[in-house]
Amino acid sequence: MHEQRVARAYHTELILALVVYTVLLLAAIRYGRPLPDGVLRTAILVSPMIGFGLMIRAVARQFARVDEYQRMRMLENLAMAAAITGAATFTYGFMETAGFARLSMFSVWIIMGSALGAVTLVRRWLDR
Predict the structure, then answer these.
(1) Which whole-number Å values give the CA distances from 9 to 32, 105, 123, in the listed order?
(2) Dist. CA 13–CA 127, nearest whole Å
(3) 82: Cβ–Cβ under 8 A, 6 or more apart, which residues?
């Protein structure tokens, strides 16, 4: 019962943060890109980070809500995902020097999220 309440609170906060991020991202793309270079344009283009900050807050609050075992598992998953991301980005850095296309920094977040999801799923499957 408690775990369901904790999960529901986390999902509610995370979904709200994702909605804020998405709305600000769409607004930044629509209204920020056409503006001339300057402080206003930069502020508008960076505004989706407000939603990202809310996502960080949701994750931090989730860490505070869960018990020690769940916290340890979450941190282990995150550490493994960070190691995978480091290995992948470092490897691609060498590949760029070999002539591969340069990738946007946005791709690092995609790798990190994918690695975290994969590590979490594999560990759940192994725990069965």
Answers:
(1) 33, 31, 24
(2) 28
(3) 112
- In this predicted model, what pLDDT tens digit does every residue of 1-25 receive, in sequence order? 878 888 899 999 999 999 999 999 9
Q: How many domains does the chain have?
A: 2
Contact of 44 with 24, CB cutoff 8 Å: no
Q: Are residues 25 and 77 in the same domain?
A: no
Q: Are residues 80 and 51 in the same domain?
A: no
Whole-prediction pTM value? 0.79
Q: Are 71 and 45 in contact (CB under 8 A)?
A: no
**Cα(104)–Cα(48) distance, integer angstroms:** 17
Q: Which domain holds residue 57?
A: 1-66
Other beta carbons within 10 angstroms of residue 62's beta carbon come to: 19
